[in-house]
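Supplementary notes (optional reading)

For those who missed the lab, this is the record we used. Protein: Proteinase inhibitor I42 chagasin domain-containing protein. Length: 149 residues.
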Amino acid sequence: MRKIFPLVVVLALTGCGTDAAPRRPVEAGVMPPPMTAAAALAKVPPVVRLGPADDGRHVPVRPGQRIVVTLPGDTSTGYSWWVLKNDPKVLRQDGEPQISSAPPPGAGGSVTFRFTAAKKGATPLRLGYLRSWEKKKPARTWSVHVMVE
């Protein structure tokens, strides 16, 4: 045991060959530099998933990136979500919305829209919850401002 003890102490004091970089002390009150737009875009996931809580948000995306919007809705009442405003040159809708209703009728469900950022630019994406045959304002609206950078 006597021969191993000094070796253990030496290894413990030298760091045992770890690859960890030495830590610098953090100064109190020093803020990290502000995040650039490029750094913010680098942190955006490949598919941006949005829902009711994202209403009113600004959403930065890259060309080719997908946006999936899922909102609660019950199509058995005649109401459904519709795209009211969007620039398809900037944000292309991919197919028809997918409706998932929970049985029985009137129990609720959701509507899912899929979009792809087509080219650089900005567009409001505004959806309305309405009955297509009625000429009234939507019962609800949801919108985000999409910036393709």
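If you only remember one thing from this example: The first strand starts at residue 47 and ends at 50.
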